[in-house]
Amino acid sequence: MKMTKKCFRLKSLLFYILILSTFLLASCTSSTETKENINSTEINNEVDENTNPDLQAAEFIRAVDGDTIKVNIDGEEFTVRMIGIDTPESVHPDKEKNNEFGEMASKFTKSMFSENQTIYLEKDVSDTDKYGRLLRYVWLSPSDNLNDGTEIEEKMYNAVCVKEGFAKSVRYGKDTKHADTFDKLEKNAYENQKGLWGITDSTFSQEIKEEPSESSYIGNSNSKKFHKITCGGLPSEKNRVYFSSREEAIENGFSPCKTCNP
Question: Hey, which residues are catalytic here?
Answer without folding.
Answer: 81, 89, 133
